[in-house]
Amino acid sequence: MRSITCLLILLFIVSGSFAQKTANPSAVGWWRGLLHREDGHNIVFNFEWTTDKGKPVWFFRNAAERIRVTDIQLKKDSVIVQMPLFESQFRLKKSANGLTGNWIKGGAVKTQVMPVTASRGGQRFDTGTDAFFDIHGRWSAKFITGDTYSPAIAEFTQHINYVTGTFLNPTGDYRYLEGLVSDDSLKLSCFDGSHAYLFTAKIEDNHTIRKGWFYAGAVHKEEWVAEKNDTATLPSDDAAMYLRPGEEKLHFSFKDLEGKTVSINDERFKNKVVVVQLMGSWCPNCMDETAFLSDYYNRNRQRGIEIVSLAYEYSTDRNRSLKTLKKFQQRFNVQYPMLITGVTVADSLRTEKTLPELTPIKFFPSSVVLDKQGRVRKLDTGFNGPGTGEHYLEYKREFEDTINRLLREN
Fold first, then answer.
1. Between these two residues, 238 and 6, which has the higher pLDDT value?
2. Span 372-397, pLDDT tens digits
3. Which CATH number characterizes residue 160's domain?
4. How far is CA 279 from the centre of its chain?
C-alpha cells in the first residue's frame, strides 16, 4: 500500500511538472507584440495566450479575425511557435519582461528575420486623447513611389477612436487592419504570419488624410494619401488577364501533392464547370480565396463543378513547396486537386511555361472559369476577401451567378 501511495505521489509531481511545461498559467491572457524595424517604426500585433487540454494555444487578432495557432513548443525558457500557414515561425525566450526573440519567414530569395518582443496586455496602441475626426467611410487613396502612384480604396469603420478597415487595390485587399485615431493621428496594423503591416497618417479633416506612411516587413516603406469619396472606384485594365488570339482552351498537366500527374483533359473534368485557381502558399489573399473555394466546392461538387489549383511557389524545390501547400490543404479541408507547377512566382516566364494560352499572369490569386466544353469563359484577377465586408459578399454573388449560369448551359 505504501509503495502504491508513493507511486501516486510521484505521478502527481510528474504530471504537475508536465502541465507547467505545456501551459504556464501566468502566461494566459492578452499579449502585445512588437516586430522591431531598424527605422523604429515597429509593427504592433496582438495575440491571446490560452490553453486547450493543458496545451498552449495562441489566437492572433486582426480586427474580427482570429488565427488559431496550436503548434507551440515550450522547452525550459524557450517558446517556438509555428504559424499554421506560410513559412513563418517565432523563436522566443522567456524573460522578466515577457518574451524576446525573432520572427522568421521564408522568402523567394532570402529568409526574413525580424527581432520581436512581447509583453502582457491586449491594447494595440496607446489610446492617447479623443479623436479629433471621424474617418468612417470610403476613401480614394494613392500609394506613392517616387513619381508614380498606385490607386487604392480605403474603407474604415470608426467607433469613438477605435478603427478597423482595409485597403483595396485592383487585385485584392490588405486584409484585416485594426488601430485607432488619437487627436489627428491614425495608426493601423496587422499580422497574419505573412503580412506584417503598419499604417500611420495625419488627418487634416473629415475629408482629407495626408502624410501617410505604409511600413511592411523589415524595410519596406511607402507614402500614401487619401480623400473621402463615397463613390470611389478602381481601374481594372492594369490587372487584366486575357486569352491570347486564337485560343479558347487551356492545356496543362502537373503533379498533385501525392505525386500523381493531373491533366485538365482528365475524365474528372469533362462535362463539368471548372474553376482553375492560380495561387501560392506564400499569399495571404490566396489563403482567403482557398477558404472560400474549398467551402464552396465541398457544398456544391455534386452539381457538376470541379476546382483545381495551380501553385506558383517561392522555390522549385518540390519538398519545400509540398510542406507549405499541405498546410493549406489540411487547414481548409481542400478536397480538390492542388498541383505544383514547378515554376516560381518570380519567374518572368511563369505564364509561358505553364499557361501559354493566356496573357501574363500579373497577380495572385487569379482564376480562370471553364465551361462544360472546357472553353475559357471568365478570367478574374485578384480576390476581395472577408476583410472587405460588402465587397466580399459581392464577389461571392458574382462567382455563384457565373457558375450557375454555366451549369444551366448544355
1. 238
2. 999 999 999 888 999 999 999 999 99
3. 2.40.128.120
4. 12
Q: What is the count of structural domains for the chain?
A: 3
- Find the helix or strand (DSSP H, E) in which 101 lies: strand 98-105
From the list 175, 183, 139, 179, the residue with the least C-alpha distance to 163 is 179
User: What pTM was computed for the model?
Assistant: 0.88
* Locus of grid cell 480565396: 289
In a domain, 3, yes or no: no
The whole-angstrom separation of Cα 267 and Cα 274 is: 12
- pLDDT higher at 176 or 238: 176
395 and 387 Cβ atoms separated by less than 8 Å:
no
Give CA separation, 288 vs 7, 17, 335, 337, 387, in Å: 51, 40, 16, 17, 9
List pLDDT tens digits, range 179-203.
999 999 999 999 999 999 999 999 9
Distance (Å, rounded) from C-alpha 112 to C-alpha 107?
Answer: 7
Query: What do you get for the CA distance between the two ends of the chain, in Å?
Result: 80
Cα 173 to Cα 170: distance, rounded to the nearest angstrom? 8
77: domain CATH number is 2.40.128
Give strand pairing partners of 51: 56
Give the SS3 label for residue 252.
coil
Judge if 186 and 244 occupy the same domain. Answer: no
Establish if 306 belongs to a structural domain: yes
Domain extent, residue 145, equals: 137-228
* CA 300 from centre of chain: 25
d(CA 383, CA 287): 10
Displacement of CA 293 from its chain's centroid (Å): 15
